[in-house]
From TrEMBL:
This is ATP-binding cassette domain-containing protein. NCBIfam families: drrA. Residues 6-236 form the ABC transporter domain. GO terms for molecular function: ATP binding; ATP hydrolysis activity. The keyword Transferase does not apply. It comes from Bailinhaonella thermotolerans. It is a peripheral membrane protein. Keywords: Antibiotic resistance, ATP-binding, Cell membrane, Membrane, Nucleotide-binding, Translocase, Transport. It is found in: Cell membrane.
Amino acid sequence: MTDPIVVAEGLRKSFGDTHALQGLDLSVPQGTVCGVLGPNGAGKTTAVRILATLSVPDTGHARIAGYDVVREAGQVRANIGLAGQYAAVDEKLSGRANLRMFGRLYHLPRRQAYRRADELLERFGLMDAADRPVLGYSGGMRRRLDLITCLILRPQVLFLDEPTTGLDPRSRGEIWDSVRELVADGTTVLLTTQYLDEADQLADDIAVIDHGRVIATGTPDELKAVIGDRLDVTLEDPAALPAAMGVLNALTGADPAATGAGRLSVALPGGRLRLADVVRELDHAGVAAADVTLRRPTLDEVFLRLTDRKETVR
Ligand SMILES: Nc1ncnc2c1ncn2[C@@H]1O[C@H](COP(=O)(O)OP(=O)(O)OP(=O)(O)O)[C@@H](O)[C@H]1O
Ligand SMILES: [Mg+2]
């Protein structure tokens, strides 16, 4: 086992009365994707900015590739790339010109900067649009360009702050493919997201943060296992919902949630309940079920449970 390439211990950061980080710990093994998942205001961007040396913590410390983010910020910067929550490219310039400009800003010799720009445009599917002003790019293309400007110096660790927020499904898929390509090359990625499916798709490990601290960590499957399986029931007659809720509550000890007309869902904390028992008990109560299914929870349900918000009723 090698040491984790990103380590944060007890990071705290306040802005006046706002305690953005309240003792955040993170540990990311080299070559993996860590998904930092949290609702608005959870502290994701604050954490990324500290790890990327753009801000300093009040207390606590963090190391990237062994370098301290405060005392050795220069070495940290030489090893990382950061694509912020808001795009940094110049809209009036073409994609190619942006990449060349960043290459020069990073002190690459002109010829090398030009060659690297072309390599990246080719590799990440932007060559056809290379000479058009970024102004005319789609949101997805723009994000991809933003992402590849971070790759000019081949960083060991890449921070992506909400890389797909506001993108349509196809553009999100393209960004996901780009991230997978990077990881195949050995880059370690720490990405923040509010999208559960994004973390499910990309992350080896997930750290769920809320109110500035990590409230759960694990692989997507481990997190799903934490809250146990779910039981979904569809009733023949929606009017039987209250009776069905009573039966399910008695069987599981948990509060069922109505998930639609005549549909309810309940967590099975122990995970041990036979479908036959459910059907029989409903039957005894005079409730006819059209469908009873046992399933793994979605990451959404895990997240809602962990962040202690009411489960959505649709
Ligand atoms: N520079 C700042 N000055 C004052 N308050 C700040 C500053 N930066 C962050 N905050 C506050 O700290 C808290 C955490 O903010 P942060 O941007 O880290 O959240 P986030 O998880 O990235 O949220 P989002 O999903 O909306 O991007 C919020 O309450 C925010 O208002
Ligand atoms: Mg943010």
